[in-house]
Amino acid sequence: MSLFDPASLNLDSAVARIGVALGIGLLVGLERERRKGEGAKRGPAGLRTFALASLAGAIASIVGGETMLALITAGIIGLTAIAYYRSSSDDPGLTSEVALVLTALLGGLAIQRPGLAAGVAVALTVLLAARTKLHDFVRSVLTEDEVRDGLIFASATLVVLPLLPDRPVGPYDAFNPRAVWIIVILVMAIGAAGHMAIRLLGAQAGLPIAGLASGFVSSTATIGAMGARATKTPALLGPAVAGGVLSTVATVGQMAVVLAAVSIPVLKAMLLPLIGGGMAAVAYGAIFTIKSARETSDAELKPGRAFSPPAALLLAAVLSGVLLLSAALQDTFGELGLVIGAAVAGLADTHAPAVAIAAVAASGKIDAAAAAVPILVAMSANTLSKAVVAWMSGGPSYALRLIPGLLAVIAAVWAGAFGAYLLK
Predict the structure, then answer these.
(1) Residue 187 maps to a domain
(2) Could you read off the pLDDT of 259-275 as tens digits, one per residue?
(3) CB 109: neighbour CB atoms within 10 A?
(4) Are residues 202 and 324 in the same domain?
């Protein structure tokens, strides 16, 4: 079945789409004309050639549909090959030749879907115009390790993830392979974000900012990624600790958002605890950020790996163990109350039990003040998990600096809850 029916075009639409095709050829041709050069070594295709190729594709689509477009494209490929082999240019690249063939196809596409064709043409022209910057970026900015890490991340995301089942498996049906692998991807992505922030802003500013931003994805994963960074480059211990602690600011912010979405009374009951925890996290993180900003080290300027795949796998293993422990406790004790359930669930995640408890309060089964206690327990259990992850990923040096910050945050949360109780 043909993608294009010539009978469906009236004169006005045909002229407009041919105009789009001509514009595509002129747009790409303008860029190529600047690269064509002069004299005997000039390139074989310039402004006029690209405009004619795009028009040829458009007319072929109108006259004979896909079959004629295929024939015209094959002819352009043949002529392009002859011109390439007869060229005296020392440049062995095929950029202009491939662009010419693509322009002819875009001319044909302009008759069927002019908007899409124009958008692709703009993207093609930008790509052609950015030749020098792209080459410099790949050759001078990216390191071999960064390219390798990019390939690993692409394989983990685009190859491995789609193959994993998205259902509970294993003892107590505690493991979801896809969910666990997403944690691995998150850790690698967070590590890469921190690496890019270091390259752009420097380690002193980059890691704390990356930690704060990445905390909205997963504070636990951020703490693990920062620990791996501190282990690989001890000179970045201070900024890594700042990034890990500041990730809990995002945790507090997310908690406020999800509680507001489920139950405003519960949010009001948790408002002082959340404010206290957020202020403590900002203060502790600021201490390490300011301290590290006053320090300099040659090690921080050396490009390295964007992330550590073994560290990501280790973190996934730790979280899988937490999930298994949670499932075993639930199976053993059953329904002993919201507090025990929140503590168990909080080992793996703090937002899920908070939403569940807020939903119970919204249904009227418990009041908002009573809902605050199990949420606080869940946050405390999650703090314990973060401490374990910090020790596993970053070792004693990292953990002994980060854990006091985590304890200060959870202490401020409970102090805020006590203050709210006294204000009643």
Answers:
(1) yes
(2) 887 788 888 888 899 99
(3) 27
(4) yes
Once rounded to an integer, what is the mean pLDDT over residues 18-36?
84
- With 0.90 as the threshold, say if the pTM is over it: no
3 state DSSP class of 337 = coil
Are the CB atoms for 186 and 316 separated by under 8 Å?
A: no
Lookup: tokens for 268:
């009001």
Residue type, 341: G
Helix axis angle for 177-201 and 144-155, nearest 10°, is 150
Range of the domain at 367: 143-422
Q: Which of 300, 307, 286 is nearest to 209 (CA)?
A: 286
The full length of the chain comes to 424
Residue where a domain stops, chosen among 137, 160, 179: 137
Residue type, 249: V
Rounded Cα–Cα distance for residues 172 and 66 (Å): 56
Q: For 113-169, give the DSSP string.
A: -HHHHHHHHHHHHHHHHTHHHHHHIIIIIS-HHHHHHHHHHHHIIIIIHHHS--S-B
Provide φ and ψ at 175, rounded to 5°. Answer: -110, 130
What's the sign of the alpha-carbon dihedral 284, 285, 290, 296? positive
Amino acid identity at 168? P
**CA pair distance 296, 92, nearest whole angstrom:** 45
Whether residues 312 and 165 share a domain: the answer is: yes
**CA 115/CA 105 separation, integer angstroms:** 14
C-alpha 52/C-alpha 25 separation (Å) is 7
Strand, helix or coil at 217? coil
Q: How far apart are CA 247 and CA 211, in angstroms?
A: 5
The closest of 398, 389, 380 to 207, measured between CA atoms, is: 398
Is residue 301 very low, low, confident or very high in pLDDT (cuts 50, 70, 90)? very low
pLDDT tens for residues 149-205?
A: 788 888 888 888 888 887 877 776 766 788 778 767 876 776 676 667 666 665 556
